[in-house]
Amino acid sequence: MATLNKVTLIGHLGRDPERRVTAGGDAVTQFTLATTETWKDKSSGERKQTTEWHRVVLYRKLAEIAGEYLKKGSLVYVEGRLQTRKWTGKDDVERIAVEIIADDMRMLGGRTHEHDHGADADHAETEQHADSDQGQAHNRESGAAARSSASRYDFVDDAIPF
């Protein structure tokens, strides 16, 4: 029977990616990815969550793209395989690292630019003042339109891997 070593994750970067170059000139980028599971405890009824951290490594062109465009907090889809590395540290202690060697990475969040956020906030504030000058019926219509536009996704449909 054939075997399969495949990992698929969607999560947020825990820190900015670390970008390096191998002796052969290939780009290598590493980052940590957080995936969070939330559930309701049956006995207490309270919501609980746990976060799992994953080490992700990308090579060559994918590493260059990740190093240039990803930042701490970015939402990404990663697909690859598990790999375990073992080495002995300077203190003669054996160390083990389990990593995802990614062969596919997709950025799921929209582009974020600081000046865009400021412009959007100013625009929203101006709309809010204009709405307050209008009747209550107009406010309800504007609110519905704002909720409709806010619910749209920031990423293109073909970026969704499933």
Protein described:
- This protein is α+β, with helices and mostly antiparallel strands.
- It is built from three helices and six strands.
- 10% of the residues are buried.
- The C terminus is likely disordered.
Features:
162 residues; alpha+beta; five-stranded mixed β-barrel; ssDNA-bd; Primosome_PriB/ssb; NA-bd_OB-fold
Task: List strands and helices in order, with pairings.
Layout lengths: L6 E7 L4 E4 L5 E14 L6 E13 H10 L5 E14 L5 E14 L6 H20 L2 H15 L12
Parallel strand pairs: 4-6
Antiparallel strand pairs: 1-3, 1-5, 2-3, 3-4, 5-6
Sequence of secondary-structure elements: EEEEHEEHH
Q: Classify the helix fraction into a percent range.
A: 25-40%
Compute the average pLDDT: 76
**Could you give the order of strands across the largest sheet?**
1-3-4-6-5
What characteristic shape results from the CA principal axes? globular
* Proportion of residues in extended strands: 35-45%
Number of DSSP-assigned strands: 6
Subunit structure: Homotetramer.
GO molecular function, one term: DNA binding
Keywords: DNA-binding
Protein name: Single-stranded DNA-binding protein
